[in-house]
Amino acid sequence: MIKNISNLGDSAVYCDFGIEVNKSVNSEVIKYFKALKKENFESINNLTPSYNKLIVSYDLRKTNFKEVKKLIENLNVDETQDKNNNKIEIPVCCDDQFSLDIKRLEEKLKINRDKILKNFFSKEYFCYMTGFIAGMPFLGDLDENMRLPRLETPRVKVPKGSVALTEQFANIYTFESPGGWNILGNTPLDVFDNSKEVEPNLINPGDTVVFKQINIEEYNSYNDK
Amino acid sequence: MTNNFEIIRAGVNTTFQDQGRSNLYHIGIPFSGAMDNRNYSLANKLTGNKLNSPVIEFAYQGPHLKYTGEKINIAVTGDVVFKIIKSGTEIDGNCYESYQIESGDQINLISTNKSVYGYLAIGGGLDLKLQWNSCSINTKANIGSNDGKKLENGQKINILNINSDQSKRKTNYINSKVENIRVIKGTNFDYFSEEGKKIFFEKEFTVSKLSDRMGMRLEGSKIENIVNTNIKSEGLIKGVIQVPADGNPIIMLSDHGTVGGYPKIGIVASVDYDRLVQISPGSKVKFKEINLSDAETLFKLYEMETQNLLLQI
Protein backbone atom coordinates (compact mmCIF):
# COMPACT_ATOMS: atom_id res chain seq x y z
CA MET A 1 0.00 0.00 0.00
CA ILE A 2 1.08 3.56 -0.65
CA LYS A 3 1.63 5.23 2.72
CA ASN A 4 1.74 8.76 1.41
CA ILE A 5 1.33 10.58 -1.89
CA SER A 6 2.96 13.98 -2.29
CA ASN A 7 4.32 16.20 -5.00
CA LEU A 8 7.93 16.12 -6.17
CA GLY A 9 8.15 19.61 -7.58
CA ASP A 10 5.42 20.56 -10.03
CA SER A 11 5.81 17.73 -12.53
CA ALA A 12 6.01 14.48 -10.57
CA VAL A 13 4.05 12.53 -7.96
CA TYR A 14 6.05 10.97 -5.14
CA CYS A 15 4.48 7.70 -3.94
CA ASP A 16 6.00 6.67 -0.64
CA PHE A 17 5.66 3.02 0.39
CA GLY A 18 7.54 3.47 3.70
CA ILE A 19 11.16 3.35 4.77
CA GLU A 20 11.75 -0.39 4.86
CA VAL A 21 13.62 -2.14 2.06
CA ASN A 22 12.36 -5.65 1.54
CA LYS A 23 10.81 -7.79 -1.13
CA SER A 24 7.24 -7.37 0.05
CA VAL A 25 7.39 -3.54 0.12
CA ASN A 26 9.14 -3.52 -3.25
CA SER A 27 6.55 -5.92 -4.73
CA GLU A 28 3.91 -3.33 -3.88
CA VAL A 29 5.93 -0.62 -5.65
CA ILE A 30 6.24 -2.85 -8.71
CA LYS A 31 2.52 -3.66 -8.70
CA TYR A 32 1.70 0.03 -8.98
CA PHE A 33 4.46 0.53 -11.55
CA LYS A 34 3.08 -2.26 -13.74
CA ALA A 35 -0.52 -1.15 -13.38
CA LEU A 36 0.39 2.40 -14.45
CA LYS A 37 2.57 1.12 -17.28
CA LYS A 38 -0.32 -0.98 -18.55
CA GLU A 39 -2.73 1.97 -18.48
CA ASN A 40 -0.24 3.96 -20.57
CA PHE A 41 -1.76 7.33 -19.62
CA GLU A 42 -0.87 9.90 -22.27
CA SER A 43 -0.03 12.64 -19.75
CA ILE A 44 2.43 10.48 -17.78
CA ASN A 45 5.89 10.54 -19.32
CA ASN A 46 7.96 8.45 -16.91
CA LEU A 47 7.71 5.95 -14.06
CA THR A 48 10.63 5.32 -11.72
CA PRO A 49 10.17 2.46 -9.26
CA SER A 50 12.86 2.06 -6.61
CA TYR A 51 13.15 0.04 -3.37
CA ASN A 52 10.24 1.68 -1.59
CA LYS A 53 9.21 4.66 -3.72
CA LEU A 54 7.53 5.18 -7.06
CA ILE A 55 7.96 8.46 -8.89
CA VAL A 56 5.39 9.26 -11.55
CA SER A 57 6.50 12.09 -13.83
CA TYR A 58 4.01 13.92 -15.97
CA ASP A 59 3.86 16.54 -18.69
CA LEU A 60 2.76 19.73 -16.95
CA ARG A 61 1.50 21.05 -20.30
CA LYS A 62 -1.12 18.28 -20.31
CA THR A 63 -2.05 17.66 -16.68
CA ASN A 64 -1.26 18.58 -13.08
CA PHE A 65 -0.55 17.07 -9.67
CA LYS A 66 -4.17 16.75 -8.59
CA GLU A 67 -5.22 14.88 -11.72
CA VAL A 68 -2.29 12.45 -11.68
CA LYS A 69 -2.74 11.81 -7.95
CA LYS A 70 -6.35 10.87 -8.68
CA LEU A 71 -5.27 8.48 -11.46
CA ILE A 72 -2.95 6.73 -9.00
CA GLU A 73 -5.54 6.58 -6.22
CA ASN A 74 -8.17 5.12 -8.56
CA LEU A 75 -5.80 2.62 -10.11
CA ASN A 76 -6.86 -1.00 -10.13
CA VAL A 77 -3.68 -2.76 -9.03
CA ASP A 78 -4.93 -6.18 -8.00
CA GLU A 79 -5.56 -7.48 -11.52
CA THR A 80 -2.00 -7.01 -12.61
CA GLN A 81 -0.43 -8.90 -9.69
CA ASP A 82 2.76 -10.76 -10.53
CA LYS A 83 1.47 -12.08 -13.82
CA ASN A 84 4.38 -11.45 -16.11
CA ASN A 85 7.46 -11.74 -13.98
CA ASN A 86 10.22 -13.70 -15.67
CA LYS A 87 12.85 -16.00 -14.26
CA ILE A 88 16.19 -15.31 -15.88
CA GLU A 89 19.43 -17.28 -15.70
CA ILE A 90 22.66 -15.28 -15.88
CA PRO A 91 25.91 -17.15 -16.61
CA VAL A 92 28.82 -15.82 -14.52
CA CYS A 93 32.51 -16.66 -14.72
CA CYS A 94 34.54 -16.15 -11.55
CA ASP A 95 37.95 -16.75 -13.10
CA ASP A 96 40.73 -14.67 -11.45
CA GLN A 97 40.79 -12.20 -14.34
CA PHE A 98 37.14 -11.29 -13.61
CA SER A 99 36.86 -11.77 -9.85
CA LEU A 100 38.62 -8.47 -9.12
CA ASP A 101 37.59 -8.17 -5.47
CA ILE A 102 37.62 -11.81 -4.36
CA LYS A 103 40.50 -11.20 -1.88
CA ARG A 104 38.67 -8.24 -0.34
CA LEU A 105 35.48 -10.31 -0.13
CA GLU A 106 37.34 -13.15 1.61
CA GLU A 107 38.97 -10.75 4.08
CA LYS A 108 35.93 -8.60 4.85
CA LEU A 109 33.39 -11.41 4.99
CA LYS A 110 35.83 -13.87 6.65
CA ILE A 111 34.55 -16.62 4.37
CA ASN A 112 36.70 -18.51 1.86
CA ARG A 113 36.28 -18.24 -1.90
CA ASP A 114 34.51 -21.58 -2.34
CA LYS A 115 31.94 -20.79 0.31
CA ILE A 116 31.33 -17.28 -1.09
CA LEU A 117 30.68 -18.74 -4.54
CA LYS A 118 28.58 -21.59 -3.18
CA ASN A 119 26.38 -19.16 -1.29
CA PHE A 120 26.13 -16.71 -4.18
CA PHE A 121 25.19 -19.29 -6.80
CA SER A 122 22.72 -21.21 -4.64
CA LYS A 123 20.20 -18.40 -4.26
CA GLU A 124 17.38 -16.83 -6.22
CA TYR A 125 17.44 -13.05 -6.47
CA PHE A 126 14.65 -10.53 -6.90
CA CYS A 127 15.02 -7.46 -9.11
CA TYR A 128 14.07 -4.43 -7.00
CA MET A 129 14.79 -1.84 -9.65
CA THR A 130 16.89 -1.00 -12.67
CA GLY A 131 18.73 2.21 -13.22
CA PHE A 132 21.66 4.39 -12.20
CA ILE A 133 23.21 3.41 -15.52
CA ALA A 134 20.99 2.09 -18.30
CA GLY A 135 19.66 -1.37 -17.54
CA MET A 136 21.63 -1.99 -14.33
CA PRO A 137 19.54 -4.36 -12.16
CA PHE A 138 19.56 -4.10 -8.34
CA LEU A 139 19.12 -7.70 -7.15
CA GLY A 140 18.48 -8.87 -3.62
CA ASP A 141 18.77 -10.09 -1.06
CA LEU A 142 22.22 -11.40 -0.28
CA ASP A 143 22.47 -13.43 2.91
CA GLU A 144 23.46 -11.41 6.00
CA ASN A 145 26.97 -12.93 6.07
CA MET A 146 27.58 -11.90 2.42
CA ARG A 147 27.04 -8.18 2.94
CA LEU A 148 29.77 -5.57 2.82
CA PRO A 149 30.06 -1.85 2.00
CA ARG A 150 31.24 -0.25 -1.24
CA LEU A 151 34.96 0.11 -1.96
CA GLU A 152 36.57 3.01 -0.09
CA THR A 153 37.77 4.38 -3.41
CA PRO A 154 35.50 3.59 -6.34
CA ARG A 155 37.04 2.33 -9.58
CA VAL A 156 37.19 4.81 -12.45
CA LYS A 157 36.33 2.00 -14.86
CA VAL A 158 34.39 -1.12 -13.97
CA PRO A 159 34.47 -3.60 -16.89
CA LYS A 160 31.21 -4.23 -18.76
CA GLY A 161 29.45 -7.37 -17.55
CA SER A 162 30.91 -7.22 -14.04
CA VAL A 163 28.74 -8.89 -11.42
CA ALA A 164 29.25 -7.10 -8.12
CA LEU A 165 28.02 -6.96 -4.52
CA THR A 166 27.26 -4.21 -2.00
CA GLU A 167 25.18 -4.41 1.17
CA GLN A 168 22.12 -6.60 0.51
CA PHE A 169 22.36 -6.32 -3.28
CA ALA A 170 24.07 -7.77 -6.32
CA ASN A 171 24.18 -5.89 -9.61
CA ILE A 172 25.47 -6.19 -13.14
CA TYR A 173 27.39 -3.37 -14.86
CA THR A 174 25.61 -3.15 -18.21
CA PHE A 175 28.42 -1.13 -19.74
CA GLU A 176 31.82 0.14 -18.65
CA SER A 177 31.31 2.84 -16.05
CA PRO A 178 32.79 4.20 -12.84
CA GLY A 179 31.65 2.26 -9.78
CA GLY A 180 32.38 1.18 -6.25
CA TRP A 181 30.77 -2.25 -5.92
CA ASN A 182 32.77 -5.38 -5.02
CA ILE A 183 33.35 -7.36 -8.19
CA LEU A 184 32.81 -11.13 -7.96
CA GLY A 185 32.73 -12.18 -11.61
CA ASN A 186 31.67 -11.34 -15.14
CA THR A 187 28.85 -12.37 -17.43
CA PRO A 188 29.30 -12.79 -21.19
CA LEU A 189 25.56 -12.16 -21.61
CA ASP A 190 24.36 -8.76 -22.84
CA VAL A 191 22.03 -7.69 -20.04
CA PHE A 192 21.30 -4.42 -21.80
CA ASP A 193 21.12 -4.25 -25.58
CA ASN A 194 20.92 -0.64 -26.74
CA SER A 195 20.30 -1.68 -30.34
CA LYS A 196 16.86 -2.91 -29.30
CA GLU A 197 14.11 -0.35 -29.72
CA VAL A 198 11.73 -2.36 -27.54
CA GLU A 199 12.66 -3.96 -24.20
CA PRO A 200 16.42 -3.33 -24.30
CA ASN A 201 16.55 -4.62 -20.71
CA LEU A 202 16.91 -8.33 -20.11
CA ILE A 203 16.00 -7.96 -16.43
CA ASN A 204 13.07 -5.84 -15.26
CA PRO A 205 11.77 -4.89 -11.81
CA GLY A 206 9.91 -7.85 -10.29
CA ASP A 207 11.85 -10.50 -12.23
CA THR A 208 13.65 -13.39 -10.54
CA VAL A 209 17.31 -13.96 -11.35
CA VAL A 210 19.51 -17.00 -10.79
CA PHE A 211 23.24 -16.99 -11.45
CA LYS A 212 24.89 -20.02 -13.01
CA GLN A 213 28.63 -20.48 -12.65
CA ILE A 214 30.53 -21.13 -15.87
CA ASN A 215 34.23 -21.78 -16.47
CA ILE A 216 36.57 -19.72 -18.61
CA GLU A 217 36.17 -21.98 -21.67
CA GLU A 218 32.39 -21.66 -21.51
CA TYR A 219 32.80 -17.91 -21.03
CA ASN A 220 35.06 -17.53 -24.05
CA SER A 221 32.85 -19.59 -26.33
CA TYR A 222 29.57 -18.15 -25.00
CA ASN A 223 28.97 -15.66 -27.77
CA ASP A 224 30.11 -18.04 -30.54
CA LYS A 225 26.99 -20.13 -30.19
CA MET B 1 25.95 14.79 -54.11
CA THR B 2 23.89 15.16 -50.97
CA ASN B 3 23.29 18.54 -49.41
CA ASN B 4 25.47 18.78 -46.34
CA PHE B 5 27.19 20.90 -43.73
CA GLU B 6 30.85 20.24 -43.11
CA ILE B 7 32.02 20.90 -39.56
CA ILE B 8 35.11 23.10 -39.76
CA ARG B 9 35.13 23.59 -35.97
CA ALA B 10 32.79 21.55 -33.78
CA GLY B 11 32.69 23.82 -30.71
CA VAL B 12 32.76 22.87 -27.04
CA ASN B 13 29.76 20.62 -26.64
CA THR B 14 27.76 20.42 -29.84
CA THR B 15 25.04 17.78 -30.08
CA PHE B 16 21.81 16.96 -31.88
CA GLN B 17 18.76 17.42 -29.67
CA ASP B 18 15.00 17.17 -29.97
CA GLN B 19 12.13 16.80 -27.50
CA GLY B 20 13.91 13.95 -25.69
CA ARG B 21 12.86 10.38 -24.93
CA SER B 22 10.11 9.50 -22.49
CA ASN B 23 8.99 6.41 -20.57
CA LEU B 24 12.50 4.96 -20.16
CA TYR B 25 13.44 6.15 -16.63
CA HIS B 26 12.52 2.74 -15.24
CA ILE B 27 15.34 1.14 -17.19
CA GLY B 28 17.85 3.85 -16.39
CA ILE B 29 17.64 6.01 -19.50
CA PRO B 30 17.41 9.78 -18.94
CA PHE B 31 14.97 12.11 -20.70
CA SER B 32 17.64 14.28 -22.38
CA GLY B 33 16.39 16.60 -25.15
CA ALA B 34 17.05 20.29 -25.72
CA MET B 35 18.00 22.03 -22.47
CA ASP B 36 16.14 25.27 -23.22
CA ASN B 37 12.81 24.17 -24.63
CA ARG B 38 11.51 27.58 -25.62
CA ASN B 39 14.56 28.45 -27.70
CA TYR B 40 14.51 24.96 -29.22
CA SER B 41 10.90 25.36 -30.42
CA LEU B 42 11.48 28.91 -31.68
CA ALA B 43 14.46 27.78 -33.78
CA ASN B 44 12.36 25.13 -35.50
CA LYS B 45 9.43 27.47 -36.10
CA LEU B 46 11.71 30.10 -37.69
CA THR B 47 12.86 27.63 -40.33
CA GLY B 48 9.38 26.23 -40.99
CA ASN B 49 10.23 22.89 -39.36
CA LYS B 50 7.87 20.84 -37.23
CA LEU B 51 8.37 21.98 -33.63
CA ASN B 52 9.81 18.65 -32.50
CA SER B 53 12.45 18.39 -35.23
CA PRO B 54 16.12 17.73 -34.43
CA VAL B 55 18.32 20.82 -34.04
CA ILE B 56 21.99 21.45 -33.28
CA GLU B 57 22.52 22.50 -29.67
CA PHE B 58 25.80 24.07 -28.65
CA ALA B 59 27.26 25.38 -25.40
CA TYR B 60 29.53 28.45 -25.02
CA GLN B 61 31.30 28.20 -28.35
CA GLY B 62 29.24 26.81 -31.23
CA PRO B 63 30.29 25.13 -34.46
CA HIS B 64 31.70 26.71 -37.61
CA LEU B 65 30.00 25.09 -40.59
CA LYS B 66 30.39 25.15 -44.37
CA TYR B 67 27.41 24.37 -46.54
CA THR B 68 27.33 22.55 -49.86
CA GLY B 69 24.07 22.09 -51.73
CA GLU B 70 20.79 23.67 -52.80
CA LYS B 71 19.50 26.81 -51.09
CA ILE B 72 18.33 26.21 -47.51
CA ASN B 73 17.02 28.19 -44.53
CA ILE B 74 18.67 28.33 -41.12
CA ALA B 75 17.90 30.13 -37.86
CA VAL B 76 19.78 30.66 -34.60
CA THR B 77 18.15 31.17 -31.20
CA GLY B 78 19.49 31.94 -27.75
CA ASP B 79 21.82 34.82 -27.02
CA VAL B 80 24.37 33.99 -29.69
CA VAL B 81 27.04 35.98 -31.50
CA PHE B 82 27.40 34.56 -35.01
CA LYS B 83 28.48 35.42 -38.52
CA ILE B 84 27.35 34.25 -41.92
CA ILE B 85 30.10 34.26 -44.53
CA LYS B 86 28.94 34.65 -48.16
CA SER B 87 31.59 34.67 -50.90
CA GLY B 88 34.19 36.13 -48.57
CA THR B 89 31.89 38.75 -47.01
CA GLU B 90 31.03 38.46 -43.33
CA ILE B 91 27.53 39.38 -42.21
CA ASP B 92 26.65 39.77 -38.53
CA GLY B 93 23.84 37.34 -37.80
CA ASN B 94 20.76 38.15 -35.76
CA CYS B 95 19.12 35.57 -33.56
CA TYR B 96 15.39 34.95 -34.11
CA GLU B 97 15.68 35.62 -37.84
CA SER B 98 15.90 33.06 -40.65
CA TYR B 99 18.63 33.28 -43.28
CA GLN B 100 18.76 31.64 -46.67
CA ILE B 101 22.18 30.24 -47.38
CA GLU B 102 23.62 28.66 -50.52
CA SER B 103 26.47 26.42 -51.55
CA GLY B 104 29.82 27.64 -50.25
CA ASP B 105 28.33 29.81 -47.47
CA GLN B 106 29.62 29.41 -43.92
CA ILE B 107 28.00 29.88 -40.52
CA ASN B 108 30.31 30.68 -37.64
CA LEU B 109 28.60 30.41 -34.25
CA ILE B 110 31.18 32.27 -32.24
CA SER B 111 29.81 32.31 -28.71
CA THR B 112 26.81 32.33 -26.43
CA ASN B 113 26.74 35.74 -24.80
CA LYS B 114 26.53 35.52 -20.96
CA SER B 115 24.48 32.38 -21.37
CA VAL B 116 25.15 28.70 -22.00
CA TYR B 117 23.07 27.11 -24.78
CA GLY B 118 22.28 28.18 -28.31
CA TYR B 119 20.32 26.46 -31.07
CA LEU B 120 20.80 26.17 -34.81
CA ALA B 121 17.82 24.87 -36.76
CA ILE B 122 18.19 23.78 -40.36
CA GLY B 123 15.11 24.07 -42.58
CA GLY B 124 14.65 20.47 -43.59
CA GLY B 125 15.22 16.93 -42.44
CA LEU B 126 18.60 15.88 -41.07
CA ASP B 127 19.89 12.39 -41.86
CA LEU B 128 20.02 11.05 -38.31
CA LYS B 129 19.64 7.62 -36.80
CA LEU B 130 17.19 7.87 -33.92
CA GLN B 131 17.46 5.84 -30.74
CA TRP B 132 14.24 5.20 -28.85
CA ASN B 133 12.40 7.71 -31.04
CA SER B 134 14.80 10.55 -30.35
CA CYS B 135 18.03 11.90 -31.81
CA SER B 136 19.03 13.48 -28.49
CA ILE B 137 22.67 12.79 -27.75
CA ASN B 138 23.63 11.90 -24.19
CA THR B 139 27.42 11.89 -24.29
CA LYS B 140 27.82 10.36 -20.80
CA ALA B 141 25.75 7.27 -21.64
CA ASN B 142 26.54 7.29 -25.39
CA ILE B 143 22.88 7.33 -26.31
CA GLY B 144 21.36 8.94 -29.41
CA SER B 145 22.42 9.94 -32.92
CA ASN B 146 26.10 10.11 -33.91
CA ASP B 147 26.69 7.01 -31.71
CA GLY B 148 25.85 9.10 -28.67
CA LYS B 149 28.96 11.26 -29.10
CA LYS B 150 29.32 15.02 -29.48
CA LEU B 151 30.04 16.36 -32.97
CA GLU B 152 33.68 16.50 -34.09
CA ASN B 153 35.74 18.56 -36.53
CA GLY B 154 35.61 17.30 -40.10
CA GLN B 155 32.29 15.49 -39.75
CA LYS B 156 29.46 16.05 -42.21
CA ILE B 157 25.81 16.66 -41.39
CA ASN B 158 23.74 15.33 -44.28
CA ILE B 159 20.38 16.85 -45.21
CA LEU B 160 17.69 14.45 -46.43
CA ASN B 161 15.15 17.01 -47.66
CA ILE B 162 14.89 20.78 -47.79
CA ASN B 163 11.83 22.83 -46.83
CA SER B 164 10.27 24.36 -49.95
CA ASP B 165 8.96 27.46 -48.16
CA GLN B 166 12.09 29.49 -47.46
CA SER B 167 10.43 32.85 -46.84
CA LYS B 168 12.06 35.13 -44.28
CA ARG B 169 10.73 34.61 -40.79
CA LYS B 170 11.66 36.68 -37.78
CA THR B 171 10.47 37.69 -34.37
CA ASN B 172 11.58 40.03 -31.62
CA TYR B 173 12.53 38.13 -28.52
CA ILE B 174 14.88 38.98 -25.70
CA ASN B 175 15.95 36.25 -23.32
CA SER B 176 15.11 37.46 -19.84
CA LYS B 177 17.44 36.72 -16.99
CA VAL B 178 16.08 35.37 -13.73
CA GLU B 179 16.99 37.08 -10.50
CA ASN B 180 15.67 34.31 -8.32
CA ILE B 181 15.13 30.68 -9.24
CA ARG B 182 11.78 29.59 -7.88
CA VAL B 183 11.87 26.33 -5.97
CA ILE B 184 9.29 24.00 -4.42
CA LYS B 185 10.36 22.38 -1.14
CA GLY B 186 11.80 18.89 -1.60
CA THR B 187 10.78 15.60 -0.02
CA ASN B 188 13.77 15.73 2.37
CA PHE B 189 13.53 19.40 3.25
CA ASP B 190 13.41 18.56 6.95
CA TYR B 191 16.74 16.72 6.78
CA PHE B 192 18.41 20.12 6.97
CA SER B 193 19.06 22.33 9.99
CA GLU B 194 17.10 25.57 10.48
CA GLU B 195 20.31 27.42 9.64
CA GLY B 196 20.76 25.23 6.51
CA LYS B 197 17.23 25.96 5.29
CA LYS B 198 17.82 29.67 5.84
CA ILE B 199 21.06 29.57 3.87
CA PHE B 200 19.30 27.76 1.03
CA PHE B 201 16.61 30.40 0.60
CA GLU B 202 18.56 33.51 1.59
CA LYS B 203 22.16 33.20 0.44
CA GLU B 204 23.63 33.44 -3.03
CA PHE B 205 25.30 30.45 -4.65
CA THR B 206 27.88 30.44 -7.41
CA VAL B 207 27.47 28.16 -10.43
CA SER B 208 30.53 25.90 -10.62
CA LYS B 209 32.60 25.18 -13.74
CA LEU B 210 31.78 21.49 -13.25
CA SER B 211 28.24 22.05 -14.55
CA ASP B 212 27.12 20.24 -17.69
CA ARG B 213 24.00 18.72 -19.28
CA MET B 214 23.76 16.25 -16.36
CA GLY B 215 23.82 18.70 -13.53
CA MET B 216 24.54 22.17 -12.26
CA ARG B 217 26.86 22.23 -9.26
CA LEU B 218 26.63 25.14 -6.88
CA GLU B 219 29.10 26.50 -4.37
CA GLY B 220 28.41 28.67 -1.38
CA SER B 221 27.67 28.39 2.31
CA LYS B 222 27.46 24.77 3.37
CA ILE B 223 23.91 23.49 3.94
CA GLU B 224 23.98 21.41 7.10
CA ASN B 225 22.20 18.04 7.17
CA ILE B 226 21.02 16.94 10.62
CA VAL B 227 19.33 13.63 9.74
CA ASN B 228 21.22 11.55 7.18
CA THR B 229 23.41 12.52 4.24
CA ASN B 230 22.24 9.44 2.30
CA ILE B 231 18.78 8.13 1.49
CA LYS B 232 17.87 4.83 -0.16
CA SER B 233 18.28 5.39 -3.90
CA GLU B 234 15.07 6.65 -5.49
CA GLY B 235 13.94 8.28 -8.70
CA LEU B 236 14.95 11.75 -9.82
CA ILE B 237 13.47 14.29 -12.21
CA LYS B 238 15.06 17.30 -13.84
CA GLY B 239 15.24 20.27 -11.52
CA VAL B 240 15.71 18.21 -8.33
CA ILE B 241 18.23 19.86 -6.02
CA GLN B 242 20.22 17.26 -4.10
CA VAL B 243 22.58 18.10 -1.27
CA PRO B 244 25.35 15.52 -0.75
CA ALA B 245 27.47 15.27 2.40
CA ASP B 246 29.72 18.19 1.42
CA GLY B 247 26.73 20.55 1.77
CA ASN B 248 26.93 21.98 -1.77
CA PRO B 249 23.72 21.67 -3.81
CA ILE B 250 23.59 19.95 -7.21
CA ILE B 251 20.66 20.60 -9.57
CA MET B 252 19.71 17.68 -11.82
CA LEU B 253 19.55 18.73 -15.47
CA SER B 254 18.22 16.97 -18.59
CA ASP B 255 20.85 14.15 -18.83
CA HIS B 256 20.71 13.32 -15.09
CA GLY B 257 21.04 9.77 -13.78
CA THR B 258 17.60 8.25 -13.21
CA VAL B 259 18.09 7.38 -9.53
CA GLY B 260 20.06 8.99 -6.74
CA GLY B 261 20.70 8.66 -3.05
CA TYR B 262 21.24 12.20 -1.79
CA PRO B 263 18.55 14.11 0.11
CA LYS B 264 16.37 16.43 -1.99
CA ILE B 265 16.11 19.91 -0.51
CA GLY B 266 14.02 21.35 -3.34
CA ILE B 267 12.88 21.13 -6.94
CA VAL B 268 13.17 23.99 -9.44
CA ALA B 269 9.73 25.09 -10.66
CA SER B 270 9.21 24.18 -14.34
CA VAL B 271 8.55 27.84 -15.18
CA ASP B 272 12.20 28.66 -14.46
CA TYR B 273 13.91 25.63 -16.01
CA ASP B 274 14.67 27.14 -19.45
CA ARG B 275 16.24 30.18 -17.80
CA LEU B 276 18.05 28.14 -15.14
CA VAL B 277 20.04 26.13 -17.69
CA GLN B 278 21.24 29.37 -19.29
CA ILE B 279 23.01 30.58 -16.13
CA SER B 280 26.72 30.38 -16.89
CA PRO B 281 29.48 29.18 -14.54
CA GLY B 282 30.73 31.90 -12.22
CA SER B 283 27.29 33.56 -12.07
CA LYS B 284 25.32 33.86 -8.86
CA VAL B 285 21.92 32.28 -8.20
CA LYS B 286 19.45 32.70 -5.41
CA PHE B 287 16.47 30.51 -4.60
CA LYS B 288 12.97 31.64 -3.72
CA GLU B 289 10.30 29.41 -2.26
CA ILE B 290 7.09 28.92 -4.20
CA ASN B 291 4.11 26.66 -3.54
CA LEU B 292 2.76 24.02 -5.91
CA SER B 293 -0.34 25.88 -7.02
CA ASP B 294 1.59 29.08 -7.84
CA ALA B 295 4.18 27.00 -9.70
CA GLU B 296 1.43 25.39 -11.79
CA THR B 297 -0.19 28.74 -12.61
CA LEU B 298 3.12 30.39 -13.49
CA PHE B 299 4.04 27.51 -15.79
CA LYS B 300 0.68 27.79 -17.56
CA LEU B 301 1.36 31.49 -18.19
CA TYR B 302 4.91 30.75 -19.38
CA GLU B 303 3.60 28.10 -21.76
CA MET B 304 0.94 30.50 -23.11
CA GLU B 305 3.67 33.05 -23.70
CA THR B 306 5.72 30.45 -25.60
CA GLN B 307 2.68 29.56 -27.74
CA ASN B 308 2.09 33.25 -28.50
CA LEU B 309 5.71 33.70 -29.52
CA LEU B 310 5.38 30.73 -31.85
CA LEU B 311 2.15 32.06 -33.33
CA GLN B 312 3.81 35.41 -34.15
CA ILE B 313 6.31 33.68 -36.44
What does this structure look like?
The complex is a heterodimer of chains A (225) and B (313). Chain A folds into 2 domains: 4-80, 2-Layer Sandwich (Gyrase A, domain 2), CATH 3.30.1360; 87-224, Cyclophilin-like (Cyclophilin, Beta Barrel). Chain A has helices at 23-39, 65-73, 102-109, 113-121, 216-221; strands at 4-7, 12-16, 44-49, 53-58, 87-93, 124-130, 137-140, 155-158, 162-166, 169-172, 177-179, 182-186, 208-214. The longest helix of chain A has 17 residues, at 23-39. In chain A, the strands form 3 sheets. Chain A has a 7-stranded mixed sheet. A 4-stranded antiparallel sheet of chain A has the order 1-2-4-3, covered by helices on one side. Chain A is built from 5 helices and 13 strands. In chain A, a hairpin with a 4-residue loop joins strand 1 (4-7) and strand 2. The model of chain A has no long low-confidence stretch (mean pLDDT 93). Helix content of chain A is 22%, strand content 30%. Chain A is α+β, with helices and mostly antiparallel strands and 225 residues long. Chain B is an alpha+beta fold and 313 residues long. Chain B has 2 domains: 4-162, no CATH class; 180-311, Cyclophilin (Beta Barrel), CATH 2.40.100. In chain B, 14% of the residues lie in helices and 31% in strands. Chain B contains 4 helices and 21 strands. In chain B, strand 14 (205-207) and strand 15 form a beta hairpin. The radius of gyration of chain B is 20 Å and the shape is elongated. The two termini of chain B are 32 Å apart. Classes of the chains: A alpha+beta (225), B alpha+beta (313). The A-B interface holds A 6-12, 14, 19, 21, 33, 37, 45-55, 57, 60-61, 64-65, 129-136, 138, 174-175, 192, 194, 197, 200-201, 204-205 and B 22-29, 31, 131-132, 141-143, 184, 186-187, 232-237, 239-240, 257-259, 264, 267-270, 292, 295-296, 299, 303.
